[in-house]
């Protein structure tokens, strides 16, 4: 018994197109339609053929949906929800994939006061963007967090959980505010730091861009992958999860200052203690299947 | 014509054992001997069989060497050099693989005032340590930086360059001080930031370790790989490249504070501008073969 028969994807980038591909692979009888505000993206999605139908308007794409997933940057969620409001079937469930939840819930609730809303966030992705970048196995073994508000019908949450599990994901239910704090540390601040260090490197007068590139295998190149992620998506995440990001950033800065002081004063024990402690988390991530266990992420070494 | 006939590796961890394996693969007629101060590492190296001989003392290992490469943490370079001083053949070249160069040059010069010293630094590695972690292709396509001082004979530099090129590396000659600044940005500060954020995450009271691990695919897990690197090696790097690391850290902190302010005041343009700019460096790294071009470093997605 499939949780949904007609799924609509609004926003056909990396995540939206991956969901569509995954539905086709795991639930081939489900009809998947979609829409993107950008006509060029619509044309590319049409050509790639991962949807049963690409609609020219958001309204037309949802007309017979029983699940609508908004896959747009979190700052565009309100507008995307407003664009489907008039045509949304009254029994459809609306979800999303936004990386911050409290602000998205507010935006969706405002645009769709009558709808059944179950917000979601699949914690998965790559540094590539656009409909060409998606692939069906993106959610395999990854976690999808649902953050239903108290008024969400239990049955709707159960169906959405079954949907994500059918795509290969693990599902967790979480309070939206707690989600925003957890993701600030596991995703948002790491991205901000990566963007920052790549910017710092670009701006150094004494070190050329060619040198930064040549010697990036010393560690820097890892940060450039994350710092190649979609700029609009990430701008919106920071503007919409401000409070939690600033809280984690403040703690990070204090910790970094303490290490800076240890370096200045030659306090090797403080450095060694931290550097030993951090290995345990890596082991936990490998043991729980959340990263490739091969050295160097399994990067090709000829 | 091989640049060296008898190579000695002092320190049989990831880098030392990779050099030994690479020499065996690319220059099978070269005799490679080695020593490690830790008897357990010597026994494991012996069992792994990547050396022609594992000597019980540093002195015995260099007795007929024409190239000696010190592959120990930079804080241990002086002691490692002193341990071979009495037995080093007068025509042997001494090199190293340390991640900071100015302090290492001073330590080697003090311990071996008469020797021909050509310091080096292969910019390559993984997060794994020990003789089991090494592999012959580690240096393929990576850069090895040589930082000879003015008194180094040109012929010695030419031979060491030929040696590294035979292992598949590209070679660059650089001033030691400039090396230390370049590596502070491409390697040292990225490692420090990674260690810091993993520490910050471990210390959060409101977010459990289990949550950090589960949702690490949001970006955090990338940092945990680097933060699993060898603690002794990295403590020594920071203590020995203090000046350059503090300089780059100061710039990084200023840049991060500017972004923090942009988030606090809702200045999306500043965020978007940086996030767009940083993609170019990633492209350069891919184009120049310094990272895997596949999304997500080529991580396995089932």
TrEMBL record, chains A, B:
Its EC number is 1.3.1.12. Pfam families: PDH_C, PDH_N. Residues 5-293 form the Prephenate/arogenate dehydrogenase domain. GO terms for biological process: tyrosine biosynthetic process. InterPro entries: 6-PGluconate_DH-like_C_sf, NAD(P)-bd_dom_sf, PDH_C, PDH_N, Preph/Arog_dehydrog, Prephen_DH. It catalyses: prephenate + NAD(+) = 3-(4-hydroxyphenyl)pyruvate + CO2 + NADH. Pathway: Amino-acid biosynthesis; L-tyrosine biosynthesis; (4-hydroxyphenyl)pyruvate from prephenate (NAD(+) route): step 1/1. One of its GO terms (molecular function) is NAD+ binding. It is an enzyme of class 1 (oxidoreductase). Keywords: Amino-acid biosynthesis, Aromatic amino acid biosynthesis, NAD, Oxidoreductase, Tyrosine biosynthesis. It comes from the Bacteria. Belongs to the prephenate/arogenate dehydrogenase family. PANTHER family: PREPHENATE DEHYDROGENASE, PREPHENATE DEHYDROGENASE [NADP(+)]. This is prephenate dehydrogenase.
């Amino acid at each position: 018994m499939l949780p949904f028969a007609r799924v609509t994807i609004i926003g056909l980038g990396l995540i939206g197109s991956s969901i569509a591909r995954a539905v086709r692979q795991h639930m081939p009888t489900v009809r998947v339609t979609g829409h993107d505000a950008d006509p060029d993206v619509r044309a590319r999605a049409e050509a790639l053929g991962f949807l049963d139908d690409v609609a020219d308007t958001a309204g037309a794409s949802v007309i017979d949906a029983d699940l609508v997933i908004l896959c747009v940057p979190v700052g565009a969620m309100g507008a995307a929800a407003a664009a489907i409001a008039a045509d949304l079937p009254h029994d459809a469930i609306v979800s999303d994939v936004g990386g911050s939840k409290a602000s998205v819930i507010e935006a969706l609730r405002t645009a769709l006061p009558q709808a059944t809303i179950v917000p979601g966030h699949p914690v998965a992705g790559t540094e590539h963007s656009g409909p060409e970048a998606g692939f069906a196995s993106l959610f395999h073994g990854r976690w999808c967090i649902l953050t239903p508000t108290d008024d969400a019908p239990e049955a709707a949450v159960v169906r959405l959980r079954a949907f994500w599990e059918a795509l290969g994901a693990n599902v967790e239910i979480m309070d939206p505010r707690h989600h925003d704090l957890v993701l600030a540390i596991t995703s948002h601040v790491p991205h901000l730091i990566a963007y920052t260090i790549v910017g710092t490197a670009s701006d150094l007068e004494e070190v050329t861009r060619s040198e930064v590139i040549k010697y990036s295998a010393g560690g820097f190149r890892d940060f450039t992958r994350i710092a190649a992620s979609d700029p609009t998506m990430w701008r919106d995440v920071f503007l919409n999860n401000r409070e939690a990001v600033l809280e984690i950033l403040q703690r990070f800065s204090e910790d970094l200052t303490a290490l800076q002081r240890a370096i200045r004063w030659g306090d090797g024990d403080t450095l060694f203690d931290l550097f030993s402690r951090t290995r345990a988390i890596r082991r936990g991530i490998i043991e729980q299947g959340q990263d490739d266990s091969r050295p160097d992420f399994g990067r090709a070494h000829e």
